[in-house]
Design a protein that fits this description.
The protein is built from four helices and seven strands; from the N terminus they run H-E-E-E-E-E-E-H-H-H-E. By secondary structure, it is an alpha/beta fold.
Length: 135
């Protein structure tokens, strides 16, 4: 079984090769690691070996020890996806597909503008934005 640190290192390398801008935050109180993709425009990934906090609702989740991929809709109307650490290729495929969908909807230039707006809007904010680092 891989550790959250190993999964994060593997995912960051793969996502960066695909051209994503990746911000990483390692929880100070748990072993969870959070990756924000393209300043959040392409969503975020939570990597953990325990249940996440209920108030945080990440689109993509890697659960260490999970047996199979699980996708379900939320009450908010968007899906949440859960992957075992053995299915990182499926996760990357899904993230790439979602980024392509967002780029097709907004156009490539607008996608970059959305990233810049997210970065500007959240600059100096507390929580993830103030503690995360570009990797």
């Amino acid at each position: 079984m891989k550790t959250p640190q190993q999964v994060a290192a593997e995912l960051v390398g793969r996502l960066k090769r695909e051209g994503f801008i990746v911000q990483r935050y390692d929880s100070m109180t748990t072993t969870s690691i959070y990756l924000k993709l393209d300043y959040g425009v392409a969503n975020s990934i939570r990597i953990g070996d325990h249940k996440g906090k209920k108030q945080y609702k990440y689109r993509y989740n890697v659960d260490i020890g999970r047996k199979q991929i699980n996708r379900h809709s939320t009450g908010e109307g968007w899906p949440r996806w859960y992957y075992p650490e053995t299915e990182l290729e499926a996760l990357v495929r899904d993230v790439l597909k979602e980024r392509s969908r967002i780029k097709a909807k907004h156009g490539p230039d607008s996608y970059w503008a959305l990233m810049a707006a997210k970065q500007f809007e959240n600059h100096g904010s507390k929580g993830f934005w103030s503690s995360a680092r570009l990797v």
